[in-house]
Design goal:
Blueprint: H1 4-20, H2 22-39, H3 42-54, H4 59-108, H5 111-116, H6 119-126, H7 128-161, H8 163-170, H9 176-210, H10 212-217, H11 221-273, H12 279-321, E1 342-351, E2 354-364, E3 369-374, H13 380-386, E4 398-400, E5 403-404, H14 410-415, E6 417-420, H15 431-435, H16 446-455, H17 459-464, H18 482-495, E7 500-504, H19 512-526, E8 530-534, E9 546-551, E10 554-559, H20 561-567, H21 570-586
Parallel strand pairs: 3-8, 3-9, 6-7, 7-8
Antiparallel strand pairs: 1-2, 1-4, 4-5, 9-10
Helix pairs in contact: 1-12, 2-4, 2-7, 3-4, 3-12, 4-7, 6-7, 6-9, 7-8, 7-12, 8-11, 9-11, 9-12, 11-12, 16-18, 20-21
Length: 587
């Protein structure tokens, strides 16, 4: 049996939304009450009609009772409409708020969260799981409340008409709690498996669509189709297992309801024969049983809604339970304008148990340019990723403007850092909007956009496009070349006028000539701001005030270009190799 304390803990996520929209619950509850009061009075009027027929009352009196039944049914229908409108609307509002809160929480999470969770799985929780929760808090709440009220009112009236026959009608239903408890646990387990496998299908689909070029290049279409079919078949089997259980539950409910019918028919019939009750009373009993038959049968469906919703809510709660690695200093966070001084003091950093940076000591004064070179995996990107607080840093190891980075307000710090990441990401939007992503478009003129694009050597490419800056790029910028994507990202970093500019291998996809052109144009941008340039090409960093060669998370060499050449170490050797390669290319 499921833990009630754990269940109530799971429901806490949506309870705050119930409080927010309590007026919908109140009006919906009133509508449920009145629709049942009016509709459940009609079986009693059926008794009255039969009694009038037995006593050979005037036809006008019988017609008045019939008309009253018609009016009450119409009123009950009106309140039923209000019931659905209020509670279903409430569920849509809750779905909207929950989706918004979930998205806001996801955007706060650190990159490590997305390294550990597949995008498709997160998307499944944002769609399929969210809809299951809405079904639970909307139709689930509505039908369970409606059904319980029907049962309570119906059995109360039946007890008033005949306690003995009510007992016979109720006796078969006593097995319901046992049956429901047994089935509920199995339903919950199977519902969890269905939701988790749906996430796997979503993740696989997302990866296939994102990697469509690789799939086609390696001619793996058939293999991926077969793999997808296997996943789909398993999903069908899991749903069929759930449907079989649900299908077993529904006939069981019908059997119990039928036994209740037979009990009333037999024992009630005996009482009509011996004159203890009237025929109208027996007819009313059958009418009330017909009214409660649907709630009894629908109990399995409502239970399925609840179990699916709870299984999905548990999955959503796991996201809410995850917290970002970066903790804000809420007492007195710094928000002032950056000067640009950066200082690493014995900084060490590990990720997933692996040491990335080891005892790093380095100071970059405001306005200076730092060049970083090193082998792949040496820790270059990690160094610059720590500056905008993408990963947590221990206190006392990283300072910006002589203030511990953990004392800076994250939003303020990031708004003053321009970061062109190693893996360029563009949104499926216009080139203009991708450049303006980090600023308010109303604050930036077209001239400033043109200037940023010109510095990034993007302007000539844009002018060749039919729609110029309004050209829509595909998903992840797929319609642009690698170099065009990088240059768009560079323009995006420049236009925010950052105090600290980070270019992480930002020109790796452009040719040497274009790189030289970008380097020459960007020199004006680097003035009066602290800059960090990561590159495998020494030509991109040789004009930097400080150059460091990172190996194994440690600074192997440090100095300016001339001093490192004189040193004759790894930097000088790499420079000679690259010079030779350039000469060979020019032949």
């Amino acid at each position: 049996m499921s833990n009630p304390d754990k269940s109530s803990e799971d429901i806490k996520t949506v309870s705050k939304y119930f409080r927010k929209y309590k007026r919908y619950l109140i009006f919906g509850g009133i509508a449920i009450l009145f629709t049942n009061l009016f509709i459940l009075y009609t079986p009693y009027l059926t008794k009255e009609i039969f009694d009038l027929l037995e006593s050979k009352a005037p036809m006008s009196e019988i017609l008045e009772t019939v008309m009253l039944m018609v009016v009450l049914t119409a009123i009950a229908g009106f309140f039923r409409f209000l019931m659905r409108r209020t509670i279903i609307w409430m569920s849509r509002h809750i779905e909207y708020d929950l989706r918004g809160d979930l998205m806001a929480h996801l955007l706060k999470m650190s990159p490590s969260f997305y390294h550990e969770n597949r995008t498709g799985d997160i998307m499944a929780r944002m769609t399929n799981d969210l809809e299951a929760v809405r079904q639970m808090v909307g139709p689930g709440v509505m039908y369970i409340s409606d059904s319980l009220l029907k049962l309570i009112i119906s059995f109360s009236v039946m007890f008033f008409l005949s306690p003995t026959i009510t007992f016979y009608a109720l006796a078969p239903l006593l097995v319901l709690p046992i049956a429901v408890n047994l089935v509920a646990n199995v339903l919950h387990v199977r519902s969890m498996k269905v939701q988790e496998h749906f996430s796997l299908i979503t993740s696989t689909t997302q990866e296939n669509l994102s990697g469509i070029r690789v799939i086609k290049a390696y001619r793996q279409e058939e293999n991926e189709i077969d793999n997808f079919n296997l996943l789909s078949n398993k999903y069908i089997k899991l749903n069929m297992a759930l449907a079989k259980l649900h299908g077993l539950f529904m006939p069981m409910m019908r059997l119990i309801a039928s036994l209740s019918y037979l009990s009333v028919f037999y024992f009630g019939g005996l009482k009509v024969i011996d004159g203890t009750i009237s025929l109208g009373t027996l007819v009313a009993f059958f009418a009330y049983l017909s009214v409660i038959l649907w709630p009894v049968i629908a109990l399995g469906w409502v239970l399925s809604l609840y179990q699916r919703g709870r299984a999905s809510l548990i999955r959503i709660n796991k996201i809410f339970a995850s917290q970002p690695d970066i903790k804000e200093n809420k007492k007195n966070p710094h928000r002032e304008k950056l000067k640009g001084k950066i200082e690493f003091r014995n900084l060490s950093f590990a990720y997933n148990g692996s040491n990335i940076l080891d005892n790093l000591n380095l100071t970059i004064n405001p306005g200076e340019t730092l060049g970083i070179i090193g082998l792949t995996g040496s820790g270059k990107t990690t160094i610059v990723s720590l500056l905008p607080k993408l990963f947590p840093v221990a206190d006392g190891q990283l300072f910006i403007d002589d203030i511990d980075i953990n004392d800076w307000e994250t939003a303020s710090l990031r708004s003053q850092i321009g970061f062109t990441t190693q893996e360029t990401f563009l949104f499926s939007n216009s080139i203009k909007n991708n450049i303006l992503f980090g600023v308010k478009s109303a604050d930036i003129s077209d001239e400033e956009i043109n200037s940023a694009a010109e510095i990034a050597s993007l302007d000539k490419d844009v002018e060749s496009f039919p729609n110029k800056y309004e050209t829509i790029v595909g998903e992840r910028g797929i319609t642009l070349s690698g170099g065009q994507k990088q240059r768009t990202a560079i323009a995006r970093s420049i236009i925010i006028d950052p105090a600290i500019l980070i270019l992480d291998d930002a020109t790796s996809a452009v040719d040497t000539e274009t790189e030289h052109e970008i380097n020459e144009r960007i020199k004006q941008v680097l003035k009066n701001r602290t800059s960090i340039i990561i590159s495998h090409r020494i030509s991109a960093v040789k004009d930097a005030d400080i150059i460091i060669n990172i190996q194994g998370g440690k600074i192997l060499e440090q100095g300016d270009h001339d001093s490192l050449i004189k040193l004759g170490g790894a930097y000088a050797s790499l420079y000679q190799t690259q010079l030779l390669a350039m000469e060979l290319e020019s032949l």
